[in-house]
Design brief:
The protein is built from twelve helices and 16 strands. With about 400 residues, the chain is an alpha/beta fold. It has a single domain (about 5-385), classed as Alpha-Beta Barrel (TIM Barrel). Helix 7 packs parallel to helix 8.
């Protein structure tokens, strides 16, 4: 973490900074928040306008994917919903240290089990391989190799509704995959899947990928496909060339663009009702607005003939739960209830008391959203189940 970013975090109000570290990949569509609903890290309209002007002064680019085929789920199962949680590592650290008799004795896993039993939730937990030095040098020693296989039978018994997924090697740096090599991605996929199979057994690893912070290089997308991935998350919106002006992007993100830069790496407007990362970096897995319309909230996806990968927006306008106050979750969910397909999400770290932006109502946010989905007649399934050919 560079000094500029550390100063930014320390100087911001806790709730303003709350969603920064997770790099949430499920923002709301521009203009979709509704009157009176703001994200917990909203900025002033004036600041947002200055950021947008700086971005739009750059050259607008064409699509990264131009040789695509629109595909649609053949066996449409009625209204379906999916849910995922990013940045997952603390729960494994806890299990290894606390050694509970059952994983369901741990508050985090217990909450998801409750949501499954009450509302039919199926959850994909996107994981890191190790904890990060940001949380202390000794904390960074923990890796998935330290996770016992004591609860393998319990994980296996839950695999119809619980899976683990690829996210990153660790929480930092931001944008770890934006210029990744094929080998980078394949290496991390293999160590994650190896450890998950060791401690949780077979059939527990998801085949849909939300890369940490979102952007993935073209090489990285091909590596994921070769590892068996069925669907890759996409960012969305007009693409703009990176000009070399580091001030356009927040706290060091321009240097992530510059490091081992790939030709497809660019910038875009990351909507969310106003936030500190509204101007962001994007990689190969990016859709222009006309491509977004094809996949958002529907059973459609794009098959990219150049890479052989399937791409779609995982977001449908449903909230990333840690971005909103509990009282605003119902109104935000209501805005997408009615889509034939919806996905909502959150991040693990906000569930933890020792996290600087702890949200004590994380469980209530989860149950509130899941109840609305259930009561609206949706059934949960895994994101990869959308891809059936």
């Amino acid at each position: 973490m560079n000094q500029n970013r550390r100063d930014f975090i320390r100087g911001a109000a806790v709730m303003t900074a709350a969603a920064m570290a997770g790099g949430c990949t499920t923002p709301a569509a521009k203009g979709q928040l509704g009157e009176g609903i703001k994200t917990v890290r909203s900025e002033s309209p004036e600041l947002q306008a200055r950021k947008r002007k700086a971005l739009e002064s750059a050259k607008e680019l064409g699509p990264t994917m131009s040789n695509v085929e629109v595909r649609r789920t053949k066996n449409i199962p009625g209204k379906r919903a999916a849910f995922y949680i990013d940045d997952v590592i603390f729960c494994f650290r806890d299990l290894a240290a606390q050694k509970p008799k059952s994983i369901w004795d741990h508050f985090y896993f217990a909450a998801f089990k409750e949501a499954h039993e009450k509302y039919g939730l199926k959850v994909q937990m996107n994981i890191f391989y190790r904890n990060d030095f940001y949380y202390g040098a000794r904390g960074a020693e923990f890796t998935l190799k330290d996770m016992p296989d004591t609860w393998k039978a319990e994980f296996q018994a839950a695999k119809s509704w619980l899976r683990f997924g690829f996210h990153s090697y660790s929480e930092f740096p931001d944008y770890p995959w934006i210029n990744a090599s094929y080998d980078d991605v394949k290496f991390v996929w293999e160590i994650l899947t190896r450890e998950v199979e060791r401690f949780a057994g077979p059939g527990m690893f998801a085949k849909a990928v939300t890369p940490h912070w979102g952007p993935m290089s073209k090489e990285g997308c091909v590596a994921l496909k070769d590892c068996g991935v069925k669907a890759i998350w996409c960012s969305a919106g007009p693409r703009y060339a990176y000009t070399g002006d580091r001030s356009v992007l927040p706290y060091g993100h321009a240097m992530r663009i510059e490091n081992f830069r790939k030709p497809e790496t660019a910038m875009y407007w990351r909507p969310g009702g106003g936030d500190d990362i509204s101007v962001s970096a994007c990689g190969y897995n990016h859709l222009l607005p006309e491509q977004v319309k094809i996949t958002r909230g529907t059973y459609n996806w794009l098959h990219d003939k150049d890479t052989g990968c399937n791409f779609m927006t995982f977001g449908c306008g449903a909230p990333c739960l840690n971005l909103y106050k509990l009282e605003d979750i119902p109104a935000r969910m209501q805005q997408v209830i009615g889509n034939e397909y919806l996905i909502h999400a959150t991040h693990e770290e906000y569930w933890y008391k020792d996290y600087f932006a702890y949200q004590p109502d994380s469980r209530e946010k989860l149950l509130t959203a899941c109840k609305m989905v259930h009561d609206a007649g949706y059934q949960y399934f895994f994101i990869e189940d959308k891809i059936d050919w």
